[in-house]
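Take a careful look at the protein record below. Let me know whether the structure tokens fit the sequence:
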Amino acid sequence: MCKIEAETKVIDYGVLLKKGEAVVQQVAMPEELDNEEVLIKQDACNICTTDYGQWLGLREHQGYPMAGGHESSGTIVQVGKDVKEFKVGDRVSFAYSYCGRCKNCKIGRTDNCTERKNIQVMEGIKGFFGFATYAVRKTEFLVKTNKDLDPSFAAFIEPLATVVSAQSNITIELGKTVLVVGAGTMGILNALVARLSGARVIISELMENKIEKAKAYGFEVIDAGKEDVKEKLGELTDGEMADIVILGVGAKQAAKQSFELVRQLDGEILFFSAGYPAPEIPMSPNELHYRRLKLIGAFEAYMENFYTAADILSHKLIDVTPLIEKVFDLKDIQEAFEYASQPGRYRVSVRL
């Protein structure tokens, strides 16, 4: 153990007190650092769909108050005496915690850790505390990033890791056609990673600003508000449809239509996004049987995916600059949530 030597005795953090109310509160800075821990000055945290979903009251099952925020990055300002692989000044982002002892961890599936404790509790407040000015973390849950990477861009490592994880479960190959439904932040990230793998990527989208965003990235786009998606996709693929459909939205109609947009035999549908309230779709087991369809769920990521995501961003293999809609200071977190929760927004970043 060693004494924490920070410039301040308190940590400021953003917290959702109830539906529609985000405030900044303070908690005492921990006094000591374990030998294998580091103290991090958090630089930025981006507002995820999960965060503003709870702010809107769509995820009230998670409870209030909630100190959310899990898309964050920061700079190490102090290290425990046994820390060797990190040093003061290193820029880092955060992976999910894992125990390293359970069976899933031992076979590399840290995302399925049976003893994982991502949620912290400080002075009765629970959450990830991503919107906090400081954080104490064990080094095995950290990923180094390029020092030249903007903090708000480095905060994309977590969502990008979930995309990498999801696409590791489908057979994206050179020359395959992938249809991404939805051109929001996660839809664009899925499209960018699929294109990195050599696939032809087509995006369908309803909202005009998102259509323009997808086009600016150089993707073929189907305007779902003006065109029949099934008919247009058939034209673009000579009637073969998509080898893989990635659902970047949690809408019932999109999920239902995905069965018509994927090829007749051996197609794959990746259910990347959840919807609230939970959508229900009619599905015949016979259709799965005779068409040999593969339906794949996607949630979270494991450690390998975080390293891959860090490499992609650090080496600038994709550009997330256009996905930052606006930047706010922590003191304006209520305004940040109000802005982020408006339809059609991309990521809003909170500087800490």
In short: The mean pLDDT is 94. The longest strand covers residues 37-47. Residues 19 and 194 are 36 Å apart (CA to CA).
